[in-house]
Structure formats: structure tokens, C-alpha cells
Amino acid sequence: MKKTYSKEGVKVIWEPDKCIHSTICFHGLPEVFNPSKRPWINIEGARAEAIREQVKNCPSGALMLGDDD
Prior knowledge:
Shape: globular
Number of helices: 2
CATH topology: Alpha-Beta Plaits
Number of domains: 1
């Protein structure tokens, strides 16, 4: 299962089965990644560039960048 979150300038794809719960995403950008909320990714929480940089830090590859439509 994959979930996609997008806004102009960025598309984030999340594959929960790959997640190792390292907490890097929500410690690095809590205004976007918050596991206590649903949906847990608030794509409007930060600028596209900040989101792209944080997604690149995902150690498991559960968070990925997609092609911007």
C-alpha cells in the first residue's frame, strides 16, 4: 500500500510497510510529519523545499519523493 500527499512543488509517497519508525521525519519537521494526527502527513505544514529535504533523510525509503505533476 502506498499513500500520496502532494501540493504544488512537491509530492510525497509513503509506503508504511517499509517504515522502521526511526522518528527522523517527525523530529526533523513536526509541522508536516505528526504520527499522533490523521492523516499523519500535513503537506501544507511547510514549504516544498523543506519537505523535500526532510524526505531525503528517511533511512528506510518509506518516504519518497514523487514526480511533481
